[in-house]
Amino acid sequence: MPRISAATIGEHRAQTRDRILQAVARLSRVQGIDAISLTDVAAEAGITRTVLYNYFPDKVALLLAFTEQVTQYFIDSYEHELPEGASPADRLRAFVRLQLTGLLAHPHPGAADLSATLGPDAYQRLAEHVAPMQRILVEILESGIEAGDFRALDIPAAARMILAVVGAERLPLIRGDVTAESAGELVSEFVLRALSSN
Fold it and tell me: Are residues 24 and 102 in the same domain?
């Protein structure tokens, strides 16, 4: 790997950090997040483990940073893809599609397996980093109820159930049994029927 040239030390550090997170993204597609080691990441980023430790002291810190980046990418994509004045149903379809695309782009084990791998404290911190996505889902449900498109229900419980339905497509997606598009249509239709006020 060529050395990074940057005008300032701050820019150099930002570029190196970005290379590290890009390495995690590439490795997560091949190995899955839980199987990635710091040695793998350093090699993929073209740096030594010592340099990696200057940025991320352990795997948990690395995964937290990566999760934060993926979450921000999801939020930006969601906001960018939606036309002005999109209906609650269209917003829900976009949310489901982007969730499934993210599962396919960055395969990871289920919540229980990830908790076992990282430990409950680290898993809780990871869960807090993805909370903005849950807030988007809650806002979609609230707007649908307010518009009369969705029936009144326990919104936090409904959001958890919707995320569980999306998560149920994780293994079929990773195995290649379904595409993100077909899974998105199936999940969206299932969820929208459950939410329908008619």
Answer: no
Segments of the chain scoring below 50 in pLDDT: 1-2
Give just the sign of the alpha carbon dihedral 179, 181, 187, 193: negative
176 vs 172: CA distance, rounded Å = 6
**DSSP letter, residue 76:** H
Contact 97, 180 (CB under 8 A): yes
Angle at 34 between CA 32 and CA 35, to 5 degrees: 70
Q: What is the pLDDT of residues 29-71, one digit of tens each?
A: 777 677 789 999 999 999 999 999 999 999 888 888 887 887 7
Q: Which one-letter DSSP state was computed for residue 150?
A: B
Looking at the DSSP bridge assignments, the partners of residue 150 are: 196
**Full residue range of the structural domain in which residue 3 is found:** 1-57
